[in-house]
Amino acid sequence: MNPVILAAQDPTLADFGKDPWWLVLGKILFAFVVAVAATLLGVWFERRVVGRMAVRPGPNQAGPFGLLQTLADGVKLAFKEDILPRKADKVVYFFAPVISVVCAVTALSVIPFGPMVSIFGHRTPLQVTDVSVAVLVVLAFSSLAVYGIVLGGWASGSTYPLLGGLRSAAQLVSYEVTMGLSVVAVFMTAGTMSTSGIVAAQGDGTRLTIGGFDIAAPGWYAILLLPSFIMFFIAIVGETNRAPFDLPEAESELVAGFQTEYSSLKFALFMLSEYVAMVTMSAFTVTLFLGGWHAPWPITLWSGANEGWWPMLWFFGKVIMLVFVFVWLRGTLPRLRYDQFMRFGWKVLLPLNLVWIMVLAGLRSIEDWQTRDRLLVTAVGAGVLLLATLFWPSRKKELKPSLQEQADTRPYGSFPLPPMDLQVPPSPRTKRVLAEREPANVVAGPDSREV
Amino acid sequence: MTSATVLAAAGQVSGGEEVTFWILAPLALLGAVGMVWARNAVHSALWLVLTMLCLGVFYVLQAGPFIGMVQVIVYTGAIMMLFLFVLMLVGRDASDSLIETLRGQRVAAVVLGLGFAGLVGTGLYRALDGVQAVGLDEANGEGNVQGIARLLFTKYVFAFELTSALLITAAVGAMVLAHVERRKADRMDQIATMKARFRPGNYPGPKPGPGVYATSSSVATPARLPDGRLTDRSIPEILPVRELTAEETAPKGTDK
């Protein structure tokens, strides 16, 4: 494990738990406000972006650029009638949306928004709290958030919500496995499970000297652990029930899935939790793979980029970028079929993840070898892999018979086919009439037309 | 190490730990009792979830943050979720029946259960009273997760691997038992299904619906073909053909 050179602004675990009560309260309030504001702006952002993608303006009436549209929708939703289905399980029906929201918001508490800053004379990290297993805390809350959806579906006491709930139970348990395994690669590289530690570990890339130039190699795990990053992002799209994995609320199949029976504020809570979860998971991805609050490359040339309050700007910039990717996916991809989705999770993502972790463990175990041996082993391994993919016997494809051949070989008495060339012969019963007309203003000779 | 270790430092109980314990311990007990008493299976499972969450926090209090989080992720997040999955399929109105099959069984169970709980409780209390916990700082010296990992992959690696082999065997066994193997020849893709539909001898259109008459609109009533015969294809195979009375089978005239 490379000793991570900690800069002065990088908080360590020892820096937490020393704040006065008003500062703790302020940080909690800040995280909560971030969550709620992210929802208000997130819904607007999504509708505008999807609108642009569909070549239409999107909401643009309420407030400047339609910014207040979500607020108006929220107020309208709050004044709607709150319907409690007769067959609903009252207590569970009430608590399900609450569980969803609480889990989504609480996970924000271990996300580092920035480095050590000074607030009214107190030097404190811009993060509510951090523990030695902070990443697992986020995973735990995301696994508890499933209860909201599943119980909401069950407690509604009707069929579509129940189906949506069942789907979401299976979906989230499956994709949680992939998510957990992708994070393992980060643990192995960073050597810690605390979110602030992982961010600090990404701030310090290896320095390479090529041709006399001192180049800082990127330290972001999105580059170092690219396969993990891709699989992790796919998994969190599944985990947050976003398109193309929004099977629990598939409108075309299940009406609205688990939230079919919900109305008014309870429905608003489900909506809130969906968008908060999207932002929380984006922030989590930024923390784990995109360097957290560290500035991206061209900005790092300015020495003050990672100090003071500036990093919060980089952090939220990255989060907005990821939220845009979420919206982009929704605007682009059609929803997967349920069996395809499950097969993808268990038969593609899971084995790939396991193989990748094994390869990474192998690479790390030869890290203290001599450079020559290390290069040799890696080159031989990569060469074998390359040759194997090159010379892997491919299944020979049988030549498909042409359409005409297929049509000719059909058994006698088959269902009649229209002619292949699509030229319908004129029916003999149609009477042919030739219309003789005076040409209107044309100089050409008399024209005859078949009617 | 961190504040978590300080919390559970040997022999002393800090204020925060005590407050958390006295809030969560009654909740954990409530969950346990509720799980036994709830009539509805899903409610039982939810009470159990409450107890498990409280246990997870207790582990964290006892300077085992890793095991606490694993308790929440694995037990509450995955295993209880699968339990719920099955319970939801059972149906939401499925409740326990209160009929005793064995006379006096419930009273005996309550007495024996209380007796067992008393035995275990007093035994534990007498065994642990005045015991000073030692070695926690050494165990968590290089970090809680690292400590557990070191033990798992050195001293207990054989037991750990055996357990995982056992679990995998069980999982594969369950899959083999539940999996319906279909031969490749029997598998029909969309094109094959379509071709079979238009093969001679198969009528590609929809089947005729069951008969709807003034006297009967049951799905077991077969439909009538244009030539007046009844058709079996209009009723599901599992339903017995309904015996129609002569009055019902007779064509309804409009000239009455």
From TrEMBL, chain A:
Transmembrane segments: 20-45, 91-113, 133-156, 177-199, 219-238, 275-296, 308-329, 341-363, 375-392
Cited Pfam families: NADHdh
Membrane topology: Multi-pass membrane protein
Top-level EC class: translocase
InterPro entries tied to this protein: NADH_UbQ_OxRdtase_su1/FPO (IPR001694), NADH_UbQ_OxRdtase_su1_CS (IPR018086)
Summary of subunit composition and partner proteins: NDH-1 is composed of 14 different subunits. Subunits NuoA, H, J, K, L, M, N constitute the membrane sector of the complex.
Task performed by this protein: NDH-1 shuttles electrons from NADH, via FMN and iron-sulfur (Fe-S) centers, to quinones in the respiratory chain. The immediate electron acceptor for the enzyme in this species is believed to be ubiquinone. Couples the redox reaction to proton translocation (for every two electrons transferred, four hydrogen ions are translocated across the cytoplasmic membrane), and thus conserves the redox energy in a proton gradient. This subunit may bind ubiquinone.
Protein name: NADH-quinone oxidoreductase subunit H
Gene designation per UniProt: nuoH
TrEMBL record, chain B:
Family: Belongs to the complex I subunit 6 family.
Record-given protein name: NADH-quinone oxidoreductase subunit J
This enzyme's EC code(s): 7.1.1.-
Major location category of this protein: membrane
Catalytically driven reaction(s): a quinone + NADH + 5 H(+)(in) = a quinol + NAD(+) + 4 H(+)(out)
Membrane topology value: Multi-pass membrane protein
Region (Disordered): 197-256
Keyword hit for Translocase: no
Source organism superkingdom: Bacteria
Uppermost EC category: translocase
Compositional bias of kind Basic and acidic residues: 226-235
Pfam family, one: Oxidored_q3
Transmembrane segments: 20-38, 45-61, 67-87, 107-128, 156-178
Function of the molecule: NDH-1 shuttles electrons from NADH, via FMN and iron-sulfur (Fe-S) centers, to quinones in the respiratory chain. Couples the redox reaction to proton translocation (for every two electrons transferred, four hydrogen ions are translocated across the cytoplasmic membrane), and thus conserves the redox energy in a proton gradient.
Assigned keywords, A-Z: Cell membrane, Membrane, NAD, Quinone, Transmembrane, Transmembrane helix
